[in-house]
Design a protein that fits this description.
single chain, Rossmann fold, Tyrosyl-Transfer RNA Synthetase, three-stranded parallel β-sheet, binds tryptophan
Protein backbone atom coordinates (compact mmCIF):
# COMPACT_ATOMS: atom_id res chain seq x y z
CA UNK A 1 0.00 0.00 0.00
CA UNK A 2 1.20 3.51 -0.81
CA UNK A 3 2.28 5.47 2.20
CA UNK A 4 0.56 8.80 2.73
CA UNK A 5 1.22 11.41 5.40
CA UNK A 6 -1.25 13.79 6.94
CA UNK A 7 -0.55 16.05 9.87
CA UNK A 8 -1.34 19.57 10.95
CA UNK A 9 -1.37 22.37 13.45
CA UNK A 10 -3.92 24.72 14.94
CA UNK A 11 -3.25 28.28 13.80
CA UNK A 12 -3.35 29.95 17.21
CA UNK A 13 0.15 31.41 17.21
CA UNK A 14 3.53 31.41 15.55
CA UNK A 15 5.28 28.05 15.71
CA UNK A 16 8.12 27.57 18.19
CA UNK A 17 11.16 25.33 18.38
CA UNK A 18 9.14 22.77 20.35
CA UNK A 19 6.97 22.35 17.23
CA UNK A 20 10.15 22.28 15.19
CA UNK A 21 12.01 19.44 16.96
CA UNK A 22 8.78 17.63 17.85
CA UNK A 23 7.36 17.59 14.37
CA UNK A 24 8.30 20.12 11.69
CA UNK A 25 11.89 19.01 11.20
CA UNK A 26 10.76 15.42 10.85
CA UNK A 27 8.06 16.36 8.34
CA UNK A 28 10.61 17.99 6.11
CA UNK A 29 12.84 14.89 6.28
CA UNK A 30 9.84 12.65 5.51
CA UNK A 31 8.79 14.91 2.64
CA UNK A 32 12.29 14.64 1.17
CA UNK A 33 12.71 10.91 1.82
CA UNK A 34 10.80 9.89 -1.31
CA UNK A 35 9.08 7.16 0.70
CA UNK A 36 5.68 8.80 0.70
CA UNK A 37 3.39 9.04 -2.24
CA UNK A 38 1.73 12.13 -0.86
CA UNK A 39 2.27 14.48 2.07
CA UNK A 40 -0.64 16.61 3.30
CA UNK A 41 0.01 19.36 5.85
CA UNK A 42 -3.12 20.92 7.27
CA UNK A 43 -3.63 24.27 8.96
CA UNK A 44 -6.45 23.20 11.27
CA UNK A 45 -8.39 26.45 11.52
CA UNK A 46 -11.77 24.82 12.11
CA UNK A 47 -10.29 22.87 15.01
CA UNK A 48 -8.69 26.06 16.35
CA UNK A 49 -12.14 27.69 16.33
CA UNK A 50 -13.55 24.95 18.57
CA UNK A 51 -11.97 26.69 21.54
CA UNK A 52 -11.54 30.16 20.06
CA UNK A 53 -15.04 30.79 18.87
CA UNK A 54 -14.96 34.38 20.14
CA UNK A 55 -11.55 34.97 18.65
CA UNK A 56 -11.91 34.47 14.90
CA UNK A 57 -9.43 37.24 14.15
CA UNK A 58 -6.68 35.42 16.03
CA UNK A 59 -7.19 32.31 13.92
CA UNK A 60 -7.39 34.37 10.72
CA UNK A 61 -4.16 36.25 11.47
CA UNK A 62 -2.23 33.11 12.34
CA UNK A 63 -2.94 31.25 9.09
CA UNK A 64 -0.18 33.18 7.35
CA UNK A 65 2.17 32.91 10.35
CA UNK A 66 1.91 29.13 10.36
CA UNK A 67 2.23 28.97 6.58
CA UNK A 68 5.39 31.12 6.71
CA UNK A 69 6.77 28.89 9.47
CA UNK A 70 6.07 25.80 7.34
CA UNK A 71 7.72 27.19 4.25
CA UNK A 72 10.70 28.57 6.13
CA UNK A 73 11.37 25.15 7.69
CA UNK A 74 11.56 23.63 4.22
CA UNK A 75 8.12 22.26 3.57
CA UNK A 76 7.98 22.55 -0.18
CA UNK A 77 4.69 23.03 -2.02
CA UNK A 78 6.14 21.09 -4.96
CA UNK A 79 6.40 18.03 -2.71
CA UNK A 80 3.80 18.58 0.02
CA UNK A 81 0.20 19.75 -0.21
CA UNK A 82 -0.39 22.61 2.22
CA UNK A 83 -4.08 23.06 2.95
CA UNK A 84 -6.53 24.92 5.14
CA UNK A 85 -9.01 22.66 6.93
CA UNK A 86 -12.09 24.93 6.63
CA UNK A 87 -11.72 25.04 2.86
CA UNK A 88 -12.50 21.31 2.58
CA UNK A 89 -16.25 21.03 3.34
CA UNK A 90 -16.08 17.26 2.75
CA UNK A 91 -14.39 17.02 6.15
CA UNK A 92 -17.58 18.26 7.85
CA UNK A 93 -19.66 15.65 6.09
CA UNK A 94 -17.31 12.86 7.09
CA UNK A 95 -17.32 14.13 10.68
CA UNK A 96 -21.12 14.04 10.76
CA UNK A 97 -21.26 10.41 9.64
CA UNK A 98 -18.43 9.33 11.95
CA UNK A 99 -20.36 10.78 14.89
CA UNK A 100 -22.68 7.77 14.64
CA UNK A 101 -19.73 5.50 15.34
CA UNK A 102 -18.55 7.10 18.59
CA UNK A 103 -20.18 7.22 22.02
CA UNK A 104 -20.24 10.16 24.41
CA UNK A 105 -18.50 8.08 27.09
CA UNK A 106 -15.72 7.18 24.65
CA UNK A 107 -15.11 10.87 23.98
CA UNK A 108 -15.15 11.61 27.71
CA UNK A 109 -12.29 9.18 28.22
CA UNK A 110 -9.93 10.99 25.84
CA UNK A 111 -7.08 12.14 28.13
CA UNK A 112 -5.95 15.00 25.88
CA UNK A 113 -9.46 16.41 25.62
CA UNK A 114 -9.88 15.96 29.40
CA UNK A 115 -6.73 17.96 30.09
CA UNK A 116 -7.77 20.67 27.63
CA UNK A 117 -11.23 20.95 29.21
CA UNK A 118 -9.59 21.57 32.57
CA UNK A 119 -7.10 24.04 31.16
CA UNK A 120 -9.85 26.08 29.52
CA UNK A 121 -12.30 25.91 32.45
CA UNK A 122 -14.84 24.27 30.18
CA UNK A 123 -15.98 21.85 32.92
CA UNK A 124 -19.31 23.58 33.46
CA UNK A 125 -20.23 23.94 29.81
CA UNK A 126 -18.24 22.23 27.11
CA UNK A 127 -18.93 23.38 23.55
CA UNK A 128 -20.12 20.38 21.55
CA UNK A 129 -17.75 21.23 18.72
CA UNK A 130 -14.79 21.19 21.06
CA UNK A 131 -15.90 17.96 22.74
CA UNK A 132 -16.17 16.23 19.39
CA UNK A 133 -12.99 17.52 17.76
CA UNK A 134 -11.35 14.08 17.96
CA UNK A 135 -14.04 12.91 15.52
CA UNK A 136 -13.33 15.78 13.18
CA UNK A 137 -9.62 14.95 13.44
CA UNK A 138 -10.47 11.39 12.39
CA UNK A 139 -12.11 12.92 9.32
CA UNK A 140 -8.96 14.98 8.62
CA UNK A 141 -6.82 11.87 8.69
CA UNK A 142 -9.09 9.42 6.88
CA UNK A 143 -10.21 11.82 4.14
CA UNK A 144 -6.70 11.58 2.72
CA UNK A 145 -6.30 7.85 3.46
CA UNK A 146 -3.27 8.73 5.55
CA UNK A 147 -1.20 5.76 6.67
CA UNK A 148 1.19 7.83 8.75
CA UNK A 149 0.54 10.75 11.10
CA UNK A 150 3.70 12.39 12.47
CA UNK A 151 2.69 13.96 15.81
CA UNK A 152 3.70 14.51 19.42
CA UNK A 153 2.59 12.04 22.08
CA UNK A 154 -0.28 14.31 23.18
CA UNK A 155 -1.96 13.39 19.89
CA UNK A 156 -1.89 9.62 20.45
CA UNK A 157 -5.46 9.55 21.83
CA UNK A 158 -6.66 11.18 18.57
CA UNK A 159 -4.93 8.55 16.46
CA UNK A 160 -6.37 5.77 18.62
CA UNK A 161 -9.85 7.28 18.25
CA UNK A 162 -9.34 7.45 14.49
CA UNK A 163 -8.27 3.81 14.35
CA UNK A 164 -11.40 2.77 16.24
CA UNK A 165 -13.63 4.73 13.87
CA UNK A 166 -11.90 3.17 10.86
CA UNK A 167 -12.25 -0.36 12.20
CA UNK A 168 -15.90 0.17 13.04
CA UNK A 169 -16.71 1.80 9.71
CA UNK A 170 -14.91 -0.88 7.70
CA UNK A 171 -16.61 -3.64 9.66
CA UNK A 172 -20.16 -2.27 9.42
CA UNK A 173 -20.00 -0.96 5.84
CA UNK A 174 -17.15 -1.70 3.43
CA UNK A 175 -13.38 -1.57 3.89
CA UNK A 176 -13.03 1.92 2.48
CA UNK A 177 -10.98 3.63 5.21
CA UNK A 178 -7.30 3.24 6.09
CA UNK A 179 -6.13 2.69 9.67
CA UNK A 180 -3.40 5.24 10.33
CA UNK A 181 -0.33 4.96 12.52
CA UNK A 182 1.24 7.69 14.61
CA UNK A 183 4.88 8.50 14.01
CA UNK A 184 6.44 9.86 17.21
CA UNK A 185 9.70 11.82 17.52
CA UNK A 186 12.69 9.48 17.87
CA UNK A 187 14.44 11.35 20.64
CA UNK A 188 12.91 11.79 24.12
CA UNK A 189 14.11 15.41 24.36
CA UNK A 190 12.32 16.16 21.10
CA UNK A 191 9.09 14.61 22.35
CA UNK A 192 8.31 17.50 24.62
CA UNK A 193 10.76 20.35 24.71
CA UNK A 194 10.42 22.33 27.96
CA UNK A 195 10.04 26.11 28.00
CA UNK A 196 13.09 28.30 28.63
CA UNK A 197 11.87 28.62 32.25
CA UNK A 198 12.15 24.85 32.72
CA UNK A 199 8.34 24.38 32.81
CA UNK A 200 7.21 21.13 31.25
CA UNK A 201 5.85 22.61 28.06
CA UNK A 202 6.57 25.53 25.80
CA UNK A 203 3.44 27.60 25.60
CA UNK A 204 2.54 31.01 24.39
CA UNK A 205 0.51 31.82 27.48
CA UNK A 206 3.50 31.05 29.74
CA UNK A 207 5.74 33.31 27.63
CA UNK A 208 8.51 30.70 27.66
CA UNK A 209 8.90 29.95 23.95
CA UNK A 210 11.63 30.45 21.42
CA UNK A 211 9.84 31.11 18.14
CA UNK A 212 11.09 30.11 14.72
CA UNK A 213 10.54 33.74 13.73
CA UNK A 214 12.55 35.20 16.66
CA UNK A 215 15.57 37.29 15.63
CA UNK A 216 19.10 36.10 16.39
CA UNK A 217 19.28 38.64 19.25
CA UNK A 218 16.02 37.41 20.75
CA UNK A 219 17.20 33.80 20.59
CA UNK A 220 20.51 34.67 22.26
CA UNK A 221 18.82 36.70 25.02
CA UNK A 222 16.31 33.92 25.73
CA UNK A 223 18.99 31.24 25.96
CA UNK A 224 21.15 33.35 28.29
CA UNK A 225 18.22 33.60 30.77
CA UNK A 226 17.39 29.90 30.50
CA UNK A 227 16.64 27.82 33.57
CA UNK A 228 19.49 25.47 34.56
CA UNK A 229 20.39 23.85 37.88
CA UNK A 230 19.40 26.04 40.84
CA UNK A 231 22.01 24.26 43.02
CA UNK A 232 24.85 25.06 40.63
CA UNK A 233 25.85 28.38 42.20
CA UNK A 234 29.58 28.42 41.61
CA UNK A 235 31.47 27.15 38.62
CA UNK A 236 33.29 24.65 40.84
CA UNK A 237 30.02 23.15 42.18
CA UNK A 238 28.93 19.82 40.71
CA UNK A 239 25.99 20.43 38.37
CA UNK A 240 22.84 18.39 37.83
CA UNK A 241 21.46 17.41 34.45
CA UNK A 242 17.91 16.44 35.43
CA UNK A 243 15.42 19.13 34.43
CA UNK A 244 18.32 21.27 33.32
CA UNK A 245 16.80 22.97 30.32
CA UNK A 246 20.08 23.87 28.64
CA UNK A 247 21.07 20.22 28.54
CA UNK A 248 17.63 19.11 27.42
CA UNK A 249 17.95 21.50 24.48
CA UNK A 250 21.43 20.19 23.72
CA UNK A 251 19.99 16.65 23.76
CA UNK A 252 17.45 17.78 21.19
CA UNK A 253 19.69 19.85 18.92
CA UNK A 254 23.40 19.22 19.16
CA UNK A 255 25.60 16.80 17.24
CA UNK A 256 29.27 15.90 17.52
CA UNK A 257 29.97 18.20 14.58
CA UNK A 258 28.78 21.16 16.64
CA UNK A 259 31.51 20.39 19.19
CA UNK A 260 34.14 20.39 16.48
CA UNK A 261 32.97 23.80 15.30
CA UNK A 262 32.18 25.61 18.56
CA UNK A 263 33.63 23.73 21.53
CA UNK A 264 36.52 21.56 20.37
CA UNK A 265 37.75 20.85 23.92
CA UNK A 266 34.98 18.24 24.10
CA UNK A 267 34.38 15.43 21.63
CA UNK A 268 30.69 15.12 22.31
CA UNK A 269 27.79 15.86 24.63
CA UNK A 270 28.66 13.00 26.99
CA UNK A 271 32.04 14.59 27.75
CA UNK A 272 30.43 17.97 28.33
CA UNK A 273 27.85 16.42 30.66
CA UNK A 274 30.55 14.54 32.57
CA UNK A 275 32.48 17.77 33.18
CA UNK A 276 29.33 19.59 34.27
CA UNK A 277 28.35 16.93 36.81
CA UNK A 278 31.93 16.70 38.10
CA UNK A 279 32.04 20.46 38.70
CA UNK A 280 34.21 23.15 37.18
CA UNK A 281 32.06 23.99 34.16
CA UNK A 282 30.01 27.20 34.29
CA UNK A 283 26.47 27.64 32.93
CA UNK A 284 27.48 30.61 30.78
CA UNK A 285 29.91 28.54 28.77
CA UNK A 286 27.28 25.84 28.13
CA UNK A 287 24.69 28.47 27.22
CA UNK A 288 27.06 30.16 24.76
CA UNK A 289 27.57 26.81 23.10
CA UNK A 290 23.82 26.27 22.92
CA UNK A 291 23.43 29.73 21.36
CA UNK A 292 25.84 28.69 18.60
CA UNK A 293 24.06 25.39 18.02
CA UNK A 294 20.64 27.03 17.88
CA UNK A 295 21.71 29.89 15.63
CA UNK A 296 23.16 27.42 13.16
CA UNK A 297 19.84 25.58 13.05
CA UNK A 298 17.62 28.67 12.99
CA UNK A 299 19.57 30.99 10.69
CA UNK A 300 18.57 29.26 7.41
CA UNK A 301 14.95 29.18 8.62
CA UNK A 302 15.01 32.93 9.36
CA UNK A 303 16.56 33.64 5.95
CA UNK A 304 13.92 31.65 4.09
CA UNK A 305 11.17 33.28 6.14
CA UNK A 306 12.43 36.74 5.19
CA UNK A 307 12.20 35.76 1.51
CA UNK A 308 8.64 34.40 1.78
CA UNK A 309 7.58 37.46 3.81
CA UNK A 310 8.22 39.50 0.66
CA UNK A 311 5.70 37.37 -1.26
CA UNK A 312 2.63 37.15 0.95
CA UNK A 313 0.09 36.95 -1.93
CA UNK A 314 2.08 34.01 -3.36
CA UNK A 315 1.92 32.26 0.01
CA UNK A 316 -1.88 32.60 0.07
CA UNK A 317 -1.91 31.26 -3.48
CA UNK A 318 0.08 28.18 -2.33
CA UNK A 319 -2.56 27.56 0.35
CA UNK A 320 -5.39 28.03 -2.12
CA UNK A 321 -3.89 25.62 -4.64
CA UNK A 322 -3.10 23.09 -1.91
CA UNK A 323 -6.63 23.29 -0.56
CA UNK A 324 -8.06 22.70 -4.05
CA UNK A 325 -5.84 19.66 -4.59
CA UNK A 326 -6.68 18.29 -1.15
CA UNK A 327 -10.37 18.80 -1.77
CA UNK A 328 -10.29 16.48 -4.77
CA UNK A 329 -8.85 13.66 -2.66
CA UNK A 330 -11.32 14.28 0.17
CA UNK A 331 -14.23 14.27 -2.31
CA UNK A 332 -13.19 10.86 -3.64
CA UNK A 333 -13.07 9.40 -0.14
CA UNK A 334 -16.42 10.97 0.74
CA UNK A 335 -18.00 9.43 -2.38
CA UNK A 336 -16.71 6.01 -1.34
CA UNK A 337 -17.96 6.54 2.21
CA UNK A 338 -21.43 7.55 1.04
CA UNK A 339 -21.63 4.64 -1.31
CA UNK A 340 -20.58 2.22 1.47
CA UNK A 341 -23.23 3.80 3.72
CA UNK A 342 -25.83 3.42 0.99
CA UNK A 343 -26.59 7.12 0.69
CA UNK A 344 -25.56 7.44 -2.94
CA UNK A 345 -29.10 7.17 -4.38
CA UNK A 346 -28.79 9.07 -7.62
CA UNK A 347 -25.70 7.39 -8.99
CA UNK A 348 -26.97 3.91 -8.11
CA UNK A 349 -28.78 2.72 -11.23
CA UNK A 350 -29.19 -0.74 -9.67
CA UNK A 351 -31.24 0.77 -6.86
CA UNK A 352 -33.43 2.77 -9.24
CA UNK A 353 -33.87 -0.27 -11.49
CA UNK A 354 -34.79 -2.54 -8.58
CA UNK A 355 -37.35 -0.07 -7.25
CA UNK A 356 -38.89 0.24 -10.74
CA UNK A 357 -39.12 -3.55 -11.05
CA UNK A 358 -40.73 -3.81 -7.61
CA UNK A 359 -43.45 -1.33 -8.52
CA UNK A 360 -43.84 -2.68 -12.07
CA UNK A 361 -44.57 -6.12 -10.58
CA UNK A 362 -47.43 -4.59 -8.52
CA UNK A 363 -49.24 -3.26 -11.57
N1 LIG B 1 -4.82 18.40 17.05
C1 LIG B 1 -3.63 18.88 16.41
C2 LIG B 1 -2.95 19.88 17.35
O1 LIG B 1 -3.57 20.35 18.29
C3 LIG B 1 -3.89 19.54 15.07
C4 LIG B 1 -4.53 18.64 14.07
C5 LIG B 1 -5.76 18.81 13.49
C6 LIG B 1 -3.99 17.44 13.52
N2 LIG B 1 -6.02 17.81 12.63
C7 LIG B 1 -4.97 16.94 12.61
C8 LIG B 1 -2.81 16.73 13.72
C9 LIG B 1 -4.77 15.76 11.92
C10 LIG B 1 -2.62 15.54 13.03
C11 LIG B 1 -3.60 15.05 12.13
O2 LIG B 1 -1.82 20.21 17.12
Amino acid sequence: MDKIILTGDRPTGRLHIGHYVGSLKRRVALQNSGEYKQVFIMIADAQALTDNIENPEKVRQNIIEVALDYLSCGLDPAKSTLLIQSQIPELCELTFYYMDLVTVSRLQRNPTVKAEIQMRNFEASIPVGFFTYPISQAADITAFKATTVPVGDDQLPMIEQTREIVRKFNQIYEPVLVEPEALLPENAACMRLPGIDGKAKMSKSLGNCIYLSDTADEVRAKIMTMYTDPLHLQVSDPGHLENNTVFTYLDAFCTDAHFERYLPEYANLDELKAHYTRGGLGDVKVKRFLVNVMQEELEPIRKRRAEFEKEIPAVYEILKKGSETARQTAAQTLAQVKSAMKINYFDDSELIGAQSDKYAAKQ
